[in-house]
Amino acid sequence: MKSFLGKIIGDRRIVGGLILIIQMCLFIWLLNNIFLIFPWVDVACTILSLCIVVWIVRKNDNPSYKIPWIILILIFPLFGGLFYLMWGNTPFNRSRASHKFEPVTPDFSQHKSTPAKDRLVAAMPRQSRRTQYIENVSGLPVWGETSTRYFSVGEHQFDAMCIELKKAQKFIFMEYFIIEPGEMWQPILDILCEKVKNGVEVRVMYDDAGCITKLPLNYDKYLNSLGIKAVRFNRFIPTLNTYLNYRDHRKITVIDGNVGYMGGTNIADEYINRSSPFGHWKDTSLELRGAGVANMTEMFLEMWEYATNTITNNHAKYKPTIERPADGYVQPFGDSPLDDFNVGETVYMQIVNNARKYVYITTPYLVLDNEMITALVTAAQSGIDVRIITPGVPDKKLVYMVTRSFYQQLHKFGVKIYEYTPGFLHAKMIVSDDDVAVVGTINMDFRSFFMHFECGTVLYGGKVIDEIKTDIEEIMVQSRLVDDRWFKDTPWLASILASILRLLAPLL
Question: Which domain holds residue 189?
């Protein structure tokens, strides 16, 4: 019994959830008592809720996010408006998350290579709008002189990354949503400790909520004691504020500015199939060598400065020093919830809208807004071969139910849906027409598109796109097609529950 209670007390997720529930109950209890003493407060709160509903309608937030809040406020007018002020997407909550942080526009003028926008526009004019959009919004340009390697499973990235980490001479930057002690992290940690002893600058940043059940509370202090500069991103403090939703979902490793890794693979044993909680874990990632790694370095430094509220002087000392032959172009980019640009979703929609032959997508979660549904359906109705692959084995059952609730609408209008039967598909990719692809951390869901810090690499041309397409086709062979029979076999009660969850999905 003592050990059981000890596990509960030691689980920050459970304790944090209980604290949030207690806060909410105390808040409601306090309001009820205030209503009894001052009846006019009841009327004031109702008027406040109605005013907030009008304000939400006028805001530029996505309708998929606004509608659930409007429904909740109208159902609970006494408390709903106040809860939105504490938990919703308000200027106050956003300002608390940004803490007056002003990111500096990256400067690539001192780099050995020059951005390849003009060359890409001449070679691939159909891709120029997307390239320009990403650069205008994030300041991160497209590059040539960069070789790429595609990893179809996490094991391959792990092996390659360990080899490169051992070669580091100047610095190592690592930024991950999840780090968990085990057969993957321990060899990496051993290498990092050895490199610190040899004078290599090592920085590690991990998301506090992502690691809430994976790492001890003060693991960052332990890493700092080893000589590793470590930061817990957005520390989990259980209070009723929306900034808790702003998580660092990125997965980036940069070595000496010349080699970079990005994709869906976190640092935990299931990502390399050393443990199998949900069957075979299918993940993918990229290795970049050369000029294009500069974008990844700038993204890491920007997040480091945001998390620590400090400035890293002389970014140029972390620039790439090598160039590599390339048969295409690369453009690593980031997405932030603290601005008004949904870069990840926009890039995906641009690819869908620009497709001429096919669009293949892999995603572990499928929680779409109306704009994305319209883009996918319109493409399918226009004769484009649109296919989406999701997991056959879920890691989060409620989210899995929401994912499946979108199947019927998409299937009805010609989008082909597959479920990966060997296990959990964690890969986040889109590929189209043999000339453009994205590999990164961006799920096809509301949290990735609107609430998380994300990253991805757009690939323009090159043989690696053929490798990605071939891998996705092999995934389809191992997946079951969602057809009319599938819908007939779905219990109606489960379908109704999924629809209810779907309505509230943006708030989950």
Answer: 117-335
